[in-house]
């Protein structure tokens, strides 16, 4: 379980990025962060893994208080936290397999990672993960030859090879088309369930959050203004999070898991028809 208690972050400029944020994420559950740009969503993720130092408050992962750790203890704790990035953060000249294995850096050390000398068990684990994310036949492809969705799948496998106790996901669908976004979100939720992983995911797409997240946290100006289930979100809620707007269309449609499956099947059929036309 992840437990965040009264977390605040004020930058040296005086800007308040987070103010008294408290939330919990249970094992095998997905919590989505929504809110306008600058609301503090990415800052919150980075405070959890200590890429950004919080000004006050506490972060617990299990029994470990991450906000008190220093040096080697902090590095060891970071190995327990997987991170998936919006822009994939792959080394494009390396192969898919090499990018996935780079997630083992915290375990094998810099020089062994640099010379690609990974334990056989790690290599076997990487092959299993690539199969699981649907890239089993892409191990030897260079990262720069992949589509956006395939790159994000590599990023997911790289995060999971750490065998993390927590997954932090920052805008994983921002650069993806709607079908691929659905696939990536579904994959993240499935992996959370399979591995009993708590997941915090930062999303700009409210409907993706409403479809896939177990609970939703709305941030505005660094403060939590909503915390609850998708069904509890109203026009007033979205006005409080984002500001006044006509949200009726957003709330009218929420993609159910069944509708999501139908969308993916329809898109796949369209791809096959297109392939037949061009063949």
Automatic annotation (TrEMBL):
The ABC transporter domain, residue ranges: 2-246
Protein's UniProt keywords contain Translocase: yes
Keywords (A to Z) from UniProt: ATP-binding, Cell membrane, Membrane, Nucleotide-binding, Translocase, Transport
Record-level GO cellular component terms: membrane
Any GO MF annotation of the entry: ATP hydrolysis activity
Top-level division of the source organism's lineage: Bacteria
SMART domains, alphabetized: AAA
Cited PROSITE patterns: ABC_TRANSPORTER_1 (PS00211), ABC_TRANSPORTER_2 (PS50893)
Pfam families named among the record's database cross-references: ABC_tran
Keyword 4Fe-4S: no
PANTHER family membership: AMINO ACID IMPORT ATP-BINDING PROTEIN, PHOSPHONATES IMPORT ATP-BINDING PROTEIN PHNC
Protein's name in the database: Phosphonate ABC transporter ATP-binding protein
Record organism: Oceanidesulfovibrio indonesiensis
């Amino acid at each position: 379980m992840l437990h965040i208690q009264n977390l605040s972050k004020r930058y040296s400029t005086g800007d308040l990025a987070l103010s008294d944020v408290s939330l919990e994420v249970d094992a095998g559950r997905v919590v989505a962060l929504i809110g306008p740009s600058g609301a503090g969503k990415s800052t919150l993720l980075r405070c959890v893994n200590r890429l950004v130092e919080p000004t006050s408050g506490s972060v617990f992962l299990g029994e470990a208080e991450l906000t008190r750790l220093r040096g080697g203890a902090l590095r060891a704790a970071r190995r327990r936290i997987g991170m998936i990035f919006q822009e994939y953060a792959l080394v494009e000249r390396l192969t898919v397999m090499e990018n996935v294995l780079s997630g083992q850096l915290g375990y094998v050390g810099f020089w062994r990672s640099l010379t690609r000398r990974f334990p056989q068990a790690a290599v076997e684990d990487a092959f299993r993960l690539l199969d699981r994310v649907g890239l089993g036949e892409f191990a030897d492809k260079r990262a720069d030859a992949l589509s956006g969705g395939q790159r994000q799948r590599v990023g997911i496998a790289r995060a999971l090879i750490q065998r993390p106790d927590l997954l932090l996901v920052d805008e994983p669908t921002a650069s993806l088309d709607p079908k691929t976004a659905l696939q990536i979100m579904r994959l993240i939720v499935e992996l959370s369930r399979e591995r009993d992983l708590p997941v915090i995911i930062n999303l700009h797409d409210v409907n993706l959050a409403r479809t896939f997240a177990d609970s939703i946290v709305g941030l505005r100006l660094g403060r939590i203004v909503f915390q609850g289930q998708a069904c509890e979100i109203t026009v007033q809620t979205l006005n409080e999070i984002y500001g006044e707007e006509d949200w009726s269309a957003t709330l009218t449609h929420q993609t159910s898991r069944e509708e999501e499956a139908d969308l993916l099947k329809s898109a796949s059929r369209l791809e096959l028809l297109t392939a037949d036309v061009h063949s």
